[in-house]
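Dear H.,

Thanks for agreeing to be a second pair of eyes. The structure we're designing against is below in C-alpha cell form, covering all 366 positions.
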C-alpha cells in the first residue's frame, strides 16, 4: 500500500481544473478516470463560461488566453420562437462577452493539455472510498487499493466518493431531456441553421420545450425537454430512432412543421437524459481526507452553471491546498465557501427549471 498526496476521482472539467492549479503550485496529484481514454466518448454540446465563475477559474488556471482563442462570443445569441407560428419573438445578442460559448470537448482539451504527462490514469474506475483518519483509501474496481492524504470526489452525478460522506443519492427532477443533433447544419440543414442563429434557439409551451444550440463545427445540438414520469420511456427502445422520433412527434403534435423539422431531420440517434438532482441543501460534516466538488457535491438542473461551478470549486480547492497550513484546514476553508454558494445556486436552478418549461417565452433559462 503506497501513500501519495492527493487523488482526484474523475477527469471531468472540475477534476481537471483542480489538478491543473495543484500542479501550478507544485503539488503532487493523480487523477483516476473510469473511461479508458480521453476520446472514449463524444463530449456533447456547448457550454457558456460565465465571467464571474468559469472564467475566474480559467484565469486562476492561467488558461484564459487559450480559452479566448476558441471561445465564441456570438454564441451568446438567444432566440425565442413561437411554437405554433415559428415566428421569432425575441432575438438578443448581449454586448460584451460575459458568457461566451465553447465546445465542451475543446474546453476539456485545454485542461488536459495543460497537465503533466501521466497525470490522468485512464481506465481506473473507483469502486470504493473509506476515510482512514489521517487520509482516505481508494479501492479500484480491480480490487487494488491506494492511500492518499486527500481524495477529491470529482466523479460527477453518481459519485462513489460521495457515498463515504453522505448517504444521499440524486432524485429524478420530473423533467426529461432527449438529446439529438444535426451535422454540418449550414450545408445540410440550411433552414434549421438559419432558424437557430449563432447561439441558442428556444421554443416552448404546455410544459414542453425545444432547445437548439450551435457548436463550433456548425453542428446543432438539440434538447427536447418536457415534464414526464420517470418511467415515461418504458417500452421505448432508444436504439430505434424511428420509434423515438414518432413518440416525440406525437408529444409535440400541433407545433409548427418548421420546428418539428429539428426532430425529423436529425443525424444519428436520440439519447435519453432524465434529469436528476441532489436535494437542496446538500451538505456534510467536514471529514479529514475527503471532499467533493462539482456535480458530486451539488448536482443541479443543467441551466448553464454546473460546469462553471465545478471548475470554480476545483480551482478554489487547489488554491486552498496550496496556501493553508494543513490539508484539513484547506478542506474546511474550501467547503465553507463552496457549500453556501452551491446551496444558493441550486435553489435558483430549481425554480429556473420550471421557468424553462413555463409558457413565458421571455424566461429563456438555458
Ligand atoms: C445537456 C446538458 C447541458 C449542460 N449545459 C451546461 C452549460 O451550458 N453550462 C454549464 O455550466 N453546465 C452545463 N451542464 C452541466 C455540466 O455538464 C456539469 O455540471 C459538469 O460537467 C460537472 O462537471 P464535473 O467535473 O463535476 O462532473 P463530470 O463532468 O460529470 O465529470 C465526472 C467524471 O468522473 C468520471 N467518473 C464517474 N464515476 C467514476 C468512478 N467511479 N471512477 C472514476 N471516474 C469516474 C466520469 O467518467 C467523468 O469523466 C450541462 C449538463 C447537461 C446534462
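And this is the sequence the design step returned. I haven't edited it by hand at all.
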Amino acid at each position: 500500500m503506497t501513500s501519495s498526496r492527493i487523488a482526484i476521482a474523475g477527469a471531468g472539467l472540475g477534476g481537471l481544473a483542480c489538478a491543473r492549479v495543484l500542479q501550478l503550485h507544485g503539488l503532487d496529484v493523480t487523477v483516476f478516470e473510469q473511461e479508458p481514454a480521453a476520446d472514449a466518448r463524444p463530449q456533447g454540446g456547448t457550454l457558456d463560461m460565465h465571467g464571474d465563475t468559469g472564467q475566474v477559474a480559467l484565469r486562476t488556471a492561467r488558461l484564459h488566453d487559450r480559452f479566448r482563442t476558441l471561445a465564441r462570443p456570438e454564441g451568446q445569441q438567444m432566440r425565442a420562437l413561437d411554437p405554433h407560428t415559428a415566428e421569432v419573438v425575441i432575438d438578443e445578442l448581449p454586448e460584451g462577452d460575459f458568457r461566451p460559448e465553447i465546445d465542451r470537448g475543446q474546453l476539456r482539451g485545454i485542461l488536459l493539455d495543460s497537465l503533466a504527462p501521466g497525470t490522468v490514469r485512464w481506465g481506473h474506475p473507483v469502486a470504493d472510498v473509506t476515510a482512514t483518519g489521517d487520509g482516505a483509501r481508494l479501492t479500484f474496481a480491480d480490487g487494488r487499493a491506494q492511500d492518499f492524504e486527500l481524495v477529491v470526489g470529482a466523479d460527477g452525478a453518481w459519485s462513489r466518493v460521495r457515498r463515504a460522506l453522505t448517504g444521499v443519492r440524486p432524485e429524478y427532477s420530473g423533467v426529461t431531456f432527449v438529446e439529438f443533433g444535426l451535422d454540418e447544419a449550414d450545408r445540410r440543414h440550411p433552414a434549421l441553421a438559419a432558424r437557430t442563429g449563432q447561439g441558442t434557439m428556444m421554443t416552448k409551451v404546455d410544459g414542453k420545450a425545444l432547445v437548439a444550440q450551435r457548436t463550433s463545427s456548425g453542428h446543432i445540438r438539440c434538447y427536447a425537454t418536457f415534464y414526464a414520469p420517470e418511467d415515461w420511456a418504458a417500452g421505448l427502445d432508444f436504439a430505434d430512432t424511428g420509434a423515438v422520433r414518432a413518440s416525440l412527434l406525437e408529444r409535440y403534435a400541433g407545433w409548427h412543421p418548421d420546428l418539428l423539422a429539428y426532430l425529423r431531420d436529425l443525424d444519428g440517434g436520440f439519447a435519453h437524459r432524465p434529469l436528476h438532482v441532489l436535494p437542496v441543501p446538500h451538505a456534510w460534516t467536514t471529514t479529514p481526507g475527503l471532499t467533493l466538488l462539482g456535480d458530486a457535491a451539488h448536482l443541479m438542473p443543467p441551466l448553464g452553471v454546473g460546469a462553471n461551478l465545478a471548475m470554480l470549486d476545483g480551482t478554489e480547492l487547489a488554491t486552498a491546498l496550496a496556501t493553508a497550513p494543513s490539508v484539513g484546514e484547506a478542506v474546511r476553508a474550501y467547503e465553507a465557501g463552496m457549500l453556501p454558494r452551491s446551496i444558493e445556486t441550486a435553489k435558483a436552478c430549481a425554480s429556473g427549471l420550471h421557468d424553462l418549461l413555463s409558457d413565458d417565452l421571455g424566461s429563456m433559462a438555458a
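Two observations from my side: The first strand starts at residue 3 and ends at 9. The chain has a mean pLDDT of 95.

Warmly,
E.
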